[in-house]
Amino acid sequence: MRHLSFRAKVWLWFTASVLIFVFSIYAAGSLYVDHLQKRNVSAVVELAREQARQLRRDLIELLVAQPAGSEMSSAAFRADARRVTSVAIRLNQNIEWAMIVDAEGNKIVQTTRDGDMVLQPMQSDKEAIELPLPDGGMGEVLVESRDGAPTEVREPLSKEGHKLGEIRFKLADSSTYRGIQETSHQISQALLAGALGFLAFVILLFAVLWRLFARQIELTRQNADLDRMAYVGTLASGLAHEIRNPLSAMNVNLDVMQEDLEAIENDPQAVAHANKLAGRLQTEVRQLNSTLTSFLDFALPQRESFTFFSLRGLVDELLELHEPQLQQAGITVEVSGMDRPASAMEGDRRLIHQALRHLIVNAVQVLAESLPKQLRVRIEPGQQRGMIRVAITDSGPGIDPADLDKLFDAFFTRRKGGSGLGLAVTRKVVMEHGGSIHAENNSEVRGATFVIELPVKQTV
Fold first, then answer.
1. Omega into 372 within 30° of 0, i.e. cis?
2. Are 392 and 360 in contact (CB under 8 A)?
3. Angstrom distance (rounded) from CA 101 to CA 406
4. Tens digit of each residue's pLDDT (9 = 90 or more) over 270-304
């Protein structure tokens, strides 16, 4: 977590919070629906149990009313049992069929709503329920289930402790139970779809708001940078004015001094020494003037003039301009990627030229004391649509990892005699064009790579 960016942490915590919230809603809804389903199914089962009790009581009363010596197989008992059983079926729509058997398992009564039928085999899963009998004993009702749905009820018939037979009736998968199952399934699907839809909506809303928020932060930062640069630019303009005038006068005086010294013939050694000093002074003046120019380029706002031009053509022009330095240093150059027509882009050609020139000059200076001396420039489409990418790779010693974060800061330099403004100016130009720049050490070979991505077309 410590190595994640602020944006990644916000996204991570937000996504986790939304997922937990959506899962909680779905879990709570599913539990509530499951509770309703179990409650309704329990009502169906309880109704079947009550019907079993009532039928048992009716049959026992019929047995008690039979003359002494009568058996369950008598015609009178069969008729009375069929009648009360038919009534039980009609009173409970969940009963599909009913059967009464004697102690030996012989069928006494078998009936359904529509007439006799072949009985289905009993299921294996049973739930035992004890019920009180009129004689003070206890009866047992066996309620079987299949996939949670009640299917069959059994109740023993006994008189004075002797088992006389058994009542069996099967519970159909009633429309009520099927409705409960279908409704529960539909509610669960609706909850899941709603939760996923809500998740997608919240993530989309957060993404839009985040982009607006990030854009606002970027605009605020750019405005702050512009205000700071305007203030620094005002100071720099005055500083440059105050320094350039004496420098110009100094340079003129040095030229005059050099001309005067050349007129002295009687002391050639003094003349040579004076000329050497004058040359050093002129070199320092030019260096100071170059530093002031770079500082002004960095500090003062630039007047951008956008035109369409070929980035490949601009790179070729820069390499041709620096060809004498490249040849003198023994640096081999390789340019690859997009050709001139394909690398067309919109931007301020002069500023882009200036930014790329700083990178090429920086690479030449680094490679001057390195082996091998290879400079590669590749132009290709950017990682994002509508962007163009130029990568400048050298085979130098690379960049100290501790310097990567401050490489583009103003006045930061590791090179003796450097102003520390070249890369800062390059970054400013790239950012003003809506692009990005970064540096990285090469992973497989020596050296470093500077990568610039610029929009192909500028937006107002």
1. yes
2. yes
3. 96
4. 667 677 767 777 777 776 776 677 666 666 556 56
